[in-house]
Amino acid sequence: QVQLVESGGGLVQPGGSLRLSCAASGFIFSSYVMSWYRQAPGKERELVATITTTGGGTNYADSVKGRFTISRDNAKNTVYLQMNSLKPEDTAVYYCYAHRFGAWGQGTQVTVSS
Question: Cα–Cα distance between 112 and 34 in angstroms, integer?
């Protein structure tokens, strides 16, 4: 059974940083592309970042380029999202996504506010 569990969200001031983690189980993690999405209140879920199986390729939404970094540790079955220079508009629930299985985690809340 595919399972994705996010952690690391919280309340942070503008300009601050957070690192999100997503622990995967139930599939061969190293074989599949992974992504982070986010959904702000009243808005559609949007793609934030994607990483290839080896981590050699990444892609980002224009709104987070230069501030966020997606990475993965295949030995730990975990994908990360390092978020720097956070802005209030980054406030959302952040979800981990396994493309091959159409599987979502439960989400972790990120709130950027002074």
Answer: 24
